[in-house]
């Protein structure tokens, strides 16, 4: 889908897919504003607005790579081999924009923590859809130390009050995005009749 192509909203939802390999350009500042504003329309029990986004771009991406990959290695994760680190650094170097994602938990609210995290997740989904509708690509990654407390702390999401949800990589698809065959909703749906 090109940035000038007009499609129906449902078509846009049906054709959205994750795009890992990205390059510049990133969304323009006014487009990024629209993308982030789309997140504000998420369903949100109690109007807590638990979603938190941290924009990471330019030289900060290299600093993120250093910080996150070093923290993962210090955590003892055996999957962070030198080859894996090299490949992650190369991938990150091509991505023009990252959003760090978190749910800020209101421990004094009657709204269950799970609902607050779900609200943040739906805000991220709105962001992903807006990225796609504007003709860009995105990839939600829980790599880069999402489950290493040091990473979320250094991003400013203290672990007592936040549940860290990972990163969105955002940019222009680096190659053609093949269509994907989606499953039929009927395979995942049943009707309850009260019996």
TrEMBL record:
Domain (Nitroreductase) ranges: 15-171
Manner of cofactor binding, per the entry note: Binds 1 FMN per subunit.
Assigned EC number: 1.-.-.-
Binding site for FMN: 16-18, 45, 140-142
Gene Ontology terms for molecular function: oxidoreductase activity
Cofactor dependency: FMN
Family of this protein: Belongs to the nitroreductase family.
Name of the molecule in the record: Putative NAD(P)H nitroreductase
Species annotation: Bordetella genomosp. 1
